[in-house]
What does this fold into?
Amino acid sequence: MAKLFLRGMPLHWQITVALAGALVLGWVLDADSEVLGVPVLALLTFVGDLFLRALRMLVIPLIASSIITGISSIGDTRDLGRLGARTAGYYLFSSLVAILSGLFWVRVMRPGIVDGAPARDRIGLAADTAEVAAQVGSRDVGDVVDVFLRMIPANVLQDAVEDQMLGVITFSLLFGFMMTRISDGPRQVLTDFWQGVYEVMIRITDLVLAFAPLGVLALVGKVALTTGVGALLPLLTFAACVLIALGCHLLLVLPLVLRVFGRVSPWAFFRVMTPALLMAFSTASSSGTLPLTLERVQAAGVSRRVSSFTLPLGATVNMDGTALYECVAAVFIAQAYGVELSVAQQLLIVTVALLTSIGVAGIPAASLVAITLILTAIGLPIEGIGLILAVDRVLDMCRTAVNVFSDSCAALLVARWEGEKDLLLAEPTASK
It folds into this structure.
């Protein structure tokens, strides 16, 4: 009945209703409550675990097909080396700055600390703090070096089976790139195959996300039953931390980059890109916004040659807002457990967030898949994902807008570096 009632609603409203239902459960029931002889807590635990397993099921095929189709779509052009180097350089720079911004704000605001104490018990995290601290404490500088070693897989199939995503990402990048170097016949066969895999995985992801309201109801309801409704209050600070960090990147960092390196008016570019940003915010899908993003960037004077290269690639591998969010979420969960991360461990989070963000497909809530990889890499339990689901949709909408604007900045900057003069945005008078 609930599913039929919610079917016509947008996903974010479904999740809002589910969150409200979870709060009601925490208000009227307790951890020992039963319905028709079935323990409510056991049922919620089962449904929540099932949803988390479904998310993890998507990781390998979704990210691999997303990267391969994105890279192979650039085609075989003489300008590939120069365009690729400039585009990749910007993407790495902007994503790294975004991650460091998120790390700064989460350490300043400390959303995982409530009234001077870790929020573990208040938000219902089940894993023992000592065990988590021991697991995280085993991660040191060697793990940072190991990240780079694992980028080159000895056996990519074994890495895929063991959820070692870094090797899979490297292999997918190389595979997609080399697809552009083979003859037309085999290339078209591979292109059709991987495009088909990607579209199938999008459908499966849509199916899993269709049950996100049930997942939220189960995961948040479990917390509400065991610890009370007040457990959700720390999430408000977490959400505020993410929004402040995203706002700084969108309104300060990227405009500064446009002004200094692109010699353009960032506010004029904002006006041009407003329709695409609004669609990105409302759909939480950078891939779904791509046609409008292309149209608006070309309206700004960027050539089809540059925009058709940078934007499809950016929709797959450039995820500033997502990378920032992944970093904040991982550190928030560590704080909630009372785990003090060393410099090396924070560097590990930054590195893994940077590498995994390039493989996050531009669809709603796909970053939840990548967060599981970061938590696993740093030694944190993935149960914390269930908590951030309560506020993920709104944050997903905001970070998607940041992703799309960063992609648009890349197109404009590369066009400027390629010597394009007929941009809609005139250079500042002082530079003439």
User: Anything to note?
Assistant: The beta strands are 34-35, 38-39, 113-114, 117-118. The domain at 2-424 is CATH 1.10.3860 (Proton glutamate symport protein). Residues 1-5, 135-144, 425-432 have pLDDT under 50 and may be disordered. The chain has one domain: 2-424.
